[in-house]
Amino acid sequence: MSCLWGDFGAALSEHSYGYDSFVQSFCGAGGKKGAIDSQDLAELEKRRNDSDFAVAFASVMPPRQLKSLLAGLRRAHAIQSANLDRLAKALSTLLGTASRAPGPARISAPYTHRLLENLDTPETGFAIGQLLRYGRFDEPFLRDLAAKTYDYERSQAPGSPYWRNLHPDSQPMCAIPLDERDPMAGVMAALANHPRAAREFLTDGRRDPLEYLTCERFWPGNTEAYLDRAIDIAGL
């Protein structure tokens, strides 16, 4: 059976971490493709603060596959909502651990670039929100990601696919609800867990994001609440 996690198990075996049996189970090798049960989730949760595991995971499980996995599970309802939340928390914490790992192996700007590819699609917007909102990230990594998301959004024309994806009057065919697909909301949710990074991003004198985000930007659904939390935690 094809594994959603690609060569993850083989790569971790090469690192001698002994995680290959877990990965095979996590991929659904013993059951329905794409299914993730509570035992597998518990195993992932147990390893989410292990920096060696986190770096190895990030090195062989590229952002494209992570985003595809989360969006696919959400669209297909292939996992209970509670377990999808647990999976998102575990993966977000894992990426945060990888961003704070010692030495050059930690995830950095190239990973950010790949994470933000296809930012104008509902699937990427959903996955970004899931992967960012729970972890504790390296602050330069998070500020760089926030700045890149902001710069991309500001470069998009009002009628672009990016904005059509977020506007209730021009919805693409998509099973992901409107208020779950805003990448900027995901960034604000992440900043709300990082007071200094939130303050430094929101007070960036070159971009002046606070004026735009509070006075000009359209926030779909209830997503403006994430901005409010980021502003509050930043002490602004």
Descriptive account of the structure:
The protein is mainly alpha-helical and 236 residues long. It has a domain of 127 residues. It is 61% helix and 0% strand. Helix 9 runs antiparallel to helix 11 and helix 12 packs across helix 14. The protein is globular. It starts with 7 loop residues before the first helix and ends with a helix. The N terminus is likely disordered.
Summarize the structure.
This protein is an all-alpha fold and 236 residues long. The chain has a domain at 108-234. The chain has helices at residues 8-14, 20-26, 38-47, 51-60, 63-76, 81-99, 109-115, 122-132, 139-154, 161-166, 183-191, 195-202, 209-216, 224-234.
Characteristics of this structure?
disordered N terminus, mainly alpha, 236 residues, single chain
- The number of helical runs is 14
Tell me the β content. Answer: under 5%
β-strand number: 0
Q: Summarize model confidence as the mean pLDDT.
A: 81
**Structural class given helices, strands, pairing?**
mainly alpha
User: In one word, what is the shape?
Assistant: globular
Terminal Cα span: 52 Å
Poorly predicted runs: 1-21, 27-34
Major β-sheet profile = none
Order of helices and strands: HHHHHHHHHHHHHH
* Helix-residue proportion: 55-70%
Radius of gyration over alpha carbons? 18 Å
